[in-house]
Amino acid sequence: MKIVIENHVPYIKGIFEPVADTLYLPAGEITRDVMRDADALITRTRTRCDASLLEGSGCRIVATATIGTDHIDLDWCRRNGVEVANAPGCNAPAVAQYVLASVATLFGGDLRGKTIGIVGVGHVGSIVERWAGGLGMSVLLCDPPRAEAEGSDGFVSLDEIASECDVITFHTPMTRTGNHPTFHLADRLFFNSLRRRPVVINSARGQVTDTVAWIEAIDRGLVSHSVVDCWEGEPAISSELLRRADIATPHIAGYSEAGKIRATIAVVEAVSRNLSLGVAFNGLVPPDAPARVTVGSLLSTYDPLADTRELKNNSGLFEQLRNNYNLRKEPLA
Fold first, then answer.
1. Quick one: which of 97, 84, 60, 50 has its CA closest to 295?
2. For the chain (length 333 residues), average pLDDT per consecutive 10?
3. What are the catalytic residues?
């Protein structure tokens, strides 16, 4: 039994060693030759999992310690009997912390009366919704797939978000097909429709926002502040957007200690079940996200400007900053 694990998945060393040959490698060294005799792969977002990596291997499961699966060819895996497991919701409280700590920092801690538009109301967006409401913000929700499935009550259009909000934060997957593709959802048309010079935040996926259109919007004064955690072209990010962004971070919005533990628990359980290994996570299980938090608990647990200074001073070290990030604590109620 052989399990290949990306070496930046935290809290996992020692779990599978008693029952399997375990190989830890950087993402760039996980190759077709490495996977040829592997039974499982545990990875993050930097390993492209498709035919070029997996064809001809004995891999039965790809488990990604992330919410997203953009890096996995789901159709190919389905056709070839490779189970795909991810960790939905694992970092949702941490991303909510990032978003609202950033907004509180930009607004000097005064959030009451501000209107926040949440585009994508899944695991992350739902926590942002709950916490933002508890902080005295008005909340508008935009989620066309949910509106179709559940009815339109409680949801608004992206046009209304653009017209009515002081803060707009994206929490969608990155999709190019289907009824509601999100590739360049925030494009030139979107930025031109903004009416209140909002704060715009992307802590979802880099390609949800059009970098060129965002830069133009900043230069034209259409947005008041820009918060960028997810970038097109990572790790080769736009130096122009980096220079203009008020808060700029190396894709670490979800990087809390508790979030990483949740992600590792999810992949350990999935691989153990698929391979009938009978192992389990052997560390502390993090508490559930609190029902509400305070501005004080947000700002005391995360300073987005510190991470911004680090990235702006070391823009060529995006991947190193991300991989060696000092995992933060999540806020408590």
1. 97
2. 96 97 97 97 95 97 94 97 96 97 97 98 97 98 97 97 98 95 98 98 98 98 98 97 98 96 97 97 89 96 98 97 96 86
3. 205, 234, 251
